[in-house]
Amino acid sequence: MQHDTHAEHTHHGHGEEHGHSQSHGHSHHGHSHHGHDHGTGPGVAPGKVSWRMAAQATLHCLTGCAIGEVLGMVIGTALGWGNVPTMALAIALAFTFGYALTLRGILKAGVDFKTAFRVALAADTLSIAVMELIDNGVIALWPGGMDAHLGDLMFWWILALALAAAFVITTPVNKWMIGRGKGHAVVHQYRH
Question: Which UniProt keywords apply (predicted)?
């Protein structure tokens, strides 16, 4: 029930870099890195984090989550599982794919797997958790949402609405985290 399967790869791999590299030279997105570099003093300017950067970070997470959720629902449906186990699988796969997209980018920079995994956990955990809560909450609370099947048009428009709500609510969370050197800010130091 989550995450923009579409624009994510390009957003995180390229969009974010472009959005962040606008900041200034070596500090790679000055705002993001100040907090990560433990420079949480007066030099940190959370206001410098643009909504575009936050939206790109959110789209990146949303893509991984959407892939995982749809795949989990397809598998659960194919196996004849009920709503609860299917949703649990979808959420687990949403986290898995969300982390995997971030890991892929960090590993490309030549970082060892253990470090890359820690960075991915730090960058995406809160963002994915908020998205999953909003997304699955919308679907669970929508009348008939949990009973809609993959072949039903209702399933897809509720999913689209849930993803849109997750995006809108998670973007300010990501903006706040990046401005404090957390979340996707920790990823940017590995992107050149």
Answer: Membrane, Transmembrane, Transmembrane helix
Summarize the confidence of residues 138-143 as an average pLDDT: 91
For residue 25, how many other CB atoms are within 10 A of its CB? 7
Whole-model pTM: value is 0.70
Q: Which run of H or E residues covers position 70?
A: helix 51-78
Q: Give the pLDDT band of residue 188 (cuts 50, 70, 90).
A: low
Q: Residue 42 burial (CB < 10 Å; 0-12/13-18/19+)? A: exposed
From first CA to last CA, the distance across the chain in angstroms is: 32
DSSP letter, residue 45? -
CA dihedral 75, 79, 82, 88 (to 10 degrees): -40
| Burial of residue 26 (number of CB atoms within 10 Å: 0-12, 13-18, 19+) | exposed
Q: Residue 186 in 3-state DSSP?
A: helix
Which residues have a Cβ under 8 Å from the Cβ of 35 and sit 6 or more positions away?
A: 44, 179, 180, 181, 182, 185
